[in-house]
Amino acid sequence: MSLLGLLATTFWVLLPAYLPNNIAVLEGGNEPIDEEKKWHQKRILGDGKTWRGTSVGIAGGILAGMFLNALRPELTAFYSFPEFTFKAIFSLATGAMLGDMAASFIKRRLGKSRGAAVPGLDQLDFLVGSLVLTYIMAPNWMRSNFTPDMIAVALIITPLLHVSANRIGYELGYKNEPW
Ligand code: CTP
Ligand code: MG
């Protein structure tokens, strides 16, 4: 596979994992998932993890995967992108939100307030969550569509894309912090 093909394929299979966090930023608000409950005097997840952001984010990731499946036949003349199974789409999108939530749980245990930056964790939490959940829920799809070099590319491009998307979100006034 050419480098461009590798980049394009990695971006394609990760799109259902990339969108949920960004949609959550646009749609977040209302009821925090942890209901403001504390564990050892510290919030379980914090106000930044809401039912609305999470559910709309997951739904958006799922729709994106279904859209890519529908688009795929139109692109075969140019490039053969992988097809998603529904389990793969679901686990990529849901795993992203679960990974992001796990990071908030860790951040609260470390005593960091909502929005505090933890470099590394913030940029990779959703990628790791997606890959782990997809490996558990759709192992055959994962094995046939995710080569080790794609995982390496994902670990490099994901932080770059995440930082850029958050910067744009901040400049446009959707996000409170530029990270
Ligand atoms: N958001 C949400 N539900 C989620 C994830 C995000 O509603 N599951 C929304 C919230 O409005 C949140 C914003 O998106 O404030 C930015 O998300 P993120 O950076 O993940 O959360 P933080 O506010 O930085 O909180 P934390 O410190 O817990 O990461
Ligand atoms: Mg944040």
Strand percent estimate? under 5%
How big is the Rg?
17 Å
Bound molecules: cytidine-5'-triphosphate, magnesium ion
Mean pLDDT across every amino acid position: 96
* Uncertain residue ranges: none
* Main sheet properties: 2 strands, antiparallel
Which percent bin holds the helix content? 55-70%
The backbone outline, from C-alpha atoms, is: elongated
Task: Say how many strands there are.
Answer: 2
Structural class: mainly alpha
What is the straight-line distance between the termini? 33 Å
Quick structural gist:
This protein is an all-alpha fold. 68% of the residues lie in helices and 2% in strands.
Key structural traits:
2% strand, binds cytidine-5'-triphosphate, two-stranded antiparallel sheet, 179 residues, mainly alpha, 6 helices, binds magnesium ion
How would you describe this protein?
It is a single chain. This protein has 179 residues and is mostly helical. Helix content is 68%, strand content 2%. It is built from six helices and two strands, in the order H-E-E-H-H-H-H-H. The protein has helices at 3-27, 51-75, 86-109, 121-137, 139-145, 148-171; strands at residues 38-39, 42-43. It has a two-stranded antiparallel sheet with strand order 1-2. A hairpin with a 2-residue loop joins strand 1 and strand 2 (42-43). The structure holds cytidine-5'-triphosphate (CTP) and magnesium ion (MG). Magnesium ion is lined by residues 115, 122.
